[in-house]
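Thread: quick sanity check before group meeting

JM: Hey all, I'm pulling together slides for Thursday and realized we never actually wrote out the predicted structure for the chain we discussed last week. Dropping the sequence here so it's in one place. If anyone has concerns about the input, flag it before I start.
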Amino acid sequence: MLERLNQVMEHIERHLGQPIDVAEAARIAATSEYHLRRMFSALAGMPLSEYIRRRRLTLAGAEVLAGHETLLEIAVRYGYSSGEAFARAFRAMHGVGPGEARRTGTVLVSQPRLSFRLTVEGSRSMRYRVVDRPDFSVVGLKARVPLVHAGPNRAIIDFVRGIAPQTRETLEKLSDQEPRGIVSVCDDLDPGRAEGTELDYYHGVITSAAAPEGIDALAVPAGTWAVFTTSGPAPEAIQNLWRDVYAEWFPSNPYRSRPGPEILRTHLSPDGTEADAELWLPVEREQG
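JM (edit): ok, ran it. Output follows.
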């Protein structure tokens, strides 16, 4: 998978002056567009679209400083419909407008080309299983929250703290399927997984029962799930698990991610510093 990702990087580099068809990039990677976007954002720490934008503006910056073409010609080459749109994007990345950059020869920001390599670290193994599940429901309380890659998510913490104990007890009684007990469910995430983009967060249970009045429900169709377990400091162990799944497990196994909710069951130590966690991700087998 990493070799195919590097082929995608080469394809992008050759076509930075043209519209880039992500579906074509996914064909080069021999995977789905959804999985390509998910893999890239997990490994690179930014959405694929953001990487492409930053690479284009890096090359555009060099051409602005070279001074061989007009700013409008450079803007059009890199996909901007007007000089104003180019200037806004240029300033957002470089901190200075293209005209001023050309006049002063100022220092600009550079986005290096990315390549992916597999690094083997020690002998730590990843615990997982793959299960086929019939359809089920997530029943619980829902909030729209921002995505946070590292550290506590204050929006989720505040939301969960606001749930009444009796509501939690009601939900726990409805749990009748794995993973049992209260779970955290993330759905409707931005495909690029950019920091700060919003998602639907459910604090609830997996069940075959109907949702009580005033409680949200998310219907989940039948499908295959990869289930990963981890233990360690909270929240670092859980956030590292997400990283390791995409950096190590997917490149080494014949599966790819598919659209669907992502489910996390967490048991915290009494002081809240340690966690045992089980992560359920929707997957499908790679074709061929």
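AS: nice. The mean pLDDT is 90. The first helix runs from residue 2 to 14.
JM: adding both to the slides.
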